[in-house]
Amino acid sequence: MSVRLRADARGMGAAAALVAILVARPSGQSPPPLPIPTDTLARVSRYVESYYTRAQSLMVEETVMVQPVRSDLAPDGFARFLIYDLRFEWKPGGDNEKPRVDIVRELLRANRRPAKPGDEPKCLDPRSVSPEPLAFLLPDRRDKFTFASAGVGRFDGRSAVMVDYRSVKPEPPTATIDEKDKDCIMFDLPGRSRGRVWADPE
After folding, report:
1. Is the peptide bond before 32 cis (omega within 30 degrees of 0)?
2. 43: which of 54, 103, 112, 162 is 20 to 30 A away, CA to CA?
């Protein structure tokens, strides 16, 4: 998980990246996790790899609005509107290289006009290259998470196998100051993700 902060005399604004579907946990003691069939995660991993292979041929348009806020969450100035061409870069790996998949963005329009040099990146804008959220399900990434069955539910009118995941252990956080914008600080907080995967059993 990563968070970008911009220093401000009236407070600190923050933007957080939401990975997969985060689950609100009720207070109190939770029941013990249920075991997952050994082939379930393997099937999900194979499907994710197949999805990345197909997705390389796709180009989508992503629209982003960035609204700075004050410490009381009231708007602080004008919102920033961005339109990107977005595509996947999937590298299956081999030999000593691990598979890798990234989301690559090319800025098309900024604030409703064609993009020009200097329009990006701003402090809270999406990164030009960022990790793809489902990559943690690839076989070489799964050892950093624990998985537990959450039973069977329904999603979009179809049956779904539910699998809860969470990081095995937090890793040391890091902070990086943007060289172009000294007021912008990037905090990386790895190993603090948890959520739920909904998988079609077919």
Report:
1. no
2. 103
For the record, the structure tokens of 60 come out as 């989508």
- Give the phi and the psi of residue 182 in degrees, each rounded to 5: -65, -15
Q: Which residues contact 67 (CB under 8 A, 6 or more apart)?
A: 75, 79, 80
How do residues 46-91 score in pLDDT, each as one tens digit? 899 888 888 887 888 999 998 988 999 999 989 989 999 999 888 8
Structure tokens at 32: 């013990």
Q: What is the pLDDT of residues 81-97, one digit of tens each?
A: 999 999 988 888 777 78
Q: Which residues pair with 87 in a beta bridge?
A: 104
Of the listed ranges 33-42, 81-90, 99-108, 167-176, the one predicted with least confidence: 33-42
Tell me which residue has tokens 């000294």.
182
Alpha-carbon dihedral sign for residues 50, 56, 60, 63: positive
Pair 11, 142: CB distance under 8 Å: no
Cα-Cα end-to-end distance for the chain: 31
Token pair listed for 128: 């030009």
**Cα(196)–Cα(14) distance, integer angstroms:** 24
Place of tokens 């999900």: 44
Question: Quick one: tokens of 72?
Answer: 């009381």
